[in-house]
Design goal:
9-stranded antiparallel beta sheet, 285 residues, Beta-galactosidase, Chain A, domain 5, 3 helices, alpha+beta, 5-stranded antiparallel beta sheet
């Protein structure tokens, strides 16, 4: 083989390698939207490209969450989950994730900040800052924004009770889901929600995906069911001025606190039972 042929083959190999590297960087766009952050004893995973949304919240390796995500509707139009707005711009900084969705007439920014505790402790916190803003020159008078939450406390389905709290003015201020001594508490800092719904299993989720408009039914408690999760949803109804107006943006700020009890290791349980048996035998003797 002459030198020019060798050079040509080398160039071809280099082009093949470069093309493969480019494909590796560019192609994973869909799955690259699944983002994970860690802080202390806790980690959070969010799939920004599907309704799975925030699908894991682990404490000391034990997941406490099945699904938490957002929907929207305008006027009497059908609801849609926010991932249908297209591929977001996702930025991770430490234990904070920010995702920016840009639709034809409005945009949505999500910011999650995870705060863990020391390894071995069983508490964690996530704050959510959500901005919905008008990108058009026309006001949006009837915007509806929804959050749906389905936790699986203690790492298993069923056995939970969900409760949503109303203030004296009829606004929803807080939501809890409990399972024995395990608890998730969500506090709404601003603005308070107009509607709420506590449900069992996938009932509320099916209504959000029903293909039409939907107003949450106002039920404030659900569960426990031995097999199905207790869920809850919140709804904010508001208008947005045309872009550049005084009220062209709505900011929703919430905070979630998890407190769970550790599950004893099987070996530890066996040791405890054996020790108790020895103690009883000695007492009898």
């Amino acid at each position: 083989m002459n030198p020019s042929s060798r050079l040509s083959n080398l160039s071809l190999k280099m082009k093949t390698i470069i093309a493969a590297l480019v494909a590796t960087v560019v192609m994973p766009g869909a799955w690259a939207q699944i983002t994970n952050v860690v802080d202390g004893n806790a980690s959070v995973t969010v799939d920004f490209g599907s309704q799975a949304g925030m699908s894991q919240w682990t404490i000391n390796g034990q997941n406490q969450l099945h699904q938490q995500w957002f929907w929207y509707g305008i006027g009497s139009g059908a609801l849609a989950s926010i991932d249908t707005l297209g591929t977001p711009n996702v930025v991770v900084s430490g234990s904070t994730i920010t995702a920016q969705y840009t639709g034809p007439t409005f945009g949505i920014n999500l910011t999650y900040t995870l705060s863990g505790s020391s390894p071995g402790q069983w508490t964690s916190d996530v704050t959510e800052n959500i901005s919905i803003y008008n990108l058009s020159g026309t006001a949006i008078s009837d915007f509806h924004f929804y959050q749906y939450s389905d936790f699986q406390l203690a790492g298993s389905a069923g056995g939970e009770q969900s409760t949503i709290f109303l203030n004296n003015d009829g606004f929803f201020t807080k939501a809890n889901v409990t399972k024995a001594t395990n608890q998730l508490s969500e506090t709404i800092d601003q603005p308070l929600a107009n509607e709420g719904e506590a449900g069992i299993g996938s009932d509320t989720l099916n209504n959000l995906n029903g293909g039409g408009p939907y107003t949450l039914n106002g039920h404030t408690t659900a569960g426990p069911d031995p097999d199905l999760d207790a869920t809850w949803a919140l709804e904010w109804d508001f208008g947005l001025d045309a872009m550049g107006g005084d009220n062209d943006t709505m900011n929703v700020i919430k905070d979630k606190k998890l407190s769970v009890e550790p599950i004893p290791e099987p070996g530890f349980c066996s040791f405890g039972i054996a020790a108790l048996a020895v103690f009883i035998l000695r007492r009898r003797k």
